[in-house]
Amino acid sequence: MIRAAAAIAIAAVLGFSQSRAMKQGPHRMEIVLERFDGSAWRSIDPGLVLAQGDRVRFRYHTNFDGYLYVADLGTSGKYEQLFPREDTGQDNRVASSKEYQVPSTSAAFRVAGPPGHDIVYWMVSPARLNEGAPRLPAAPPAPKPTPGLIPRCDDSILRARGDCVDSSAGPKLIPRGEPVPQDLSEAAGRGERDLVFMREGKAAVISSPAPLTGPVIYQFRLAHK
Questions:
Q1: How confident is the model over 80-134, as pLDDT tens digits?
Q2: Residue 8 in contact with residue 33, Cβ under 8 Å?
Q3: CA distance 206 to 89
Q4: How far is it, in rounded angstroms, from Cα 48 to Cα 156?
Q5: Which of 13, 56, 82, 200 has the smallest count of CB within 10 Å of its CB?
Q6: What contacts 16, CB < 8 A, 6 or more positions away?
């Protein structure tokens, strides 16, 4: 379990469920952020500024087969592999046109830690990274979060019920020159990827114009007070 002082705390193990087929063509990945509102899970804007104690989860699916790896750099500076690992599930294979939940339908991540942006690293590989346990190598020291990046409401975005949306949050290409945890950068390689980021409703779509032949990495900035 991630300690309560970390920016995200695991509430339960990972589980999967099946969903619709995605459009064919370039390799595509979709992420939907959900928050528990006290009675049900609701899809939310990926840039929504979350509050302390909010329970969230991700829906994720692709139009290609591969293996998923997720790690978190919290606002406290703690770096943690979220998935796969013993308490979140060892089977990290994702199949085309199936939807997966991170964590399971009865589980959640709980938001905690100093205000700012958690950097959730997502890496997808067409092949398993190693022949042993399906996990990344032991993580070396990670880059420290950039200070002063406090979430801000973007007044140009239509907000419902007074929600605060930070346009700098959500899925992003890792900026050129920005430090990346060594275990991730070595696994994904240092070559640039031509990734396209777009929105389809509340779904964040990450698309590669060409089929992926190796691991690809990007980040999801999770804003919270």
A1: 888 787 766 677 889 998 998 887 556 678 899 999 999 999 999 888 877 444 4
A2: no
A3: 24
A4: 14
A5: 200
A6: 98, 99, 100, 101, 104
Phi, psi of 10 (to 5 degrees): -75, 130
- Show the DSSP H helices in the chain as ranges: 182-188
- Measured CA to CA, the distance from residue 225 to residue 211 in angstroms comes to 38
> For residue 56, what are its two tokens?
């969230």
Task: Tell me which residue range forms the domain holding 189.
Answer: 8-224
The single-letter DSSP state of residue 19 is: -
DSSP 104-150: -TT--EEE-SSSEEEEEEEEEESS-S-SSSSSPPPP-PPPPPPTT--
Kindly state the tokens that stand for 200. 């389809």
In a domain, 198, yes or no: yes
DSSP state of 204: E
The model's pTM is 0.80
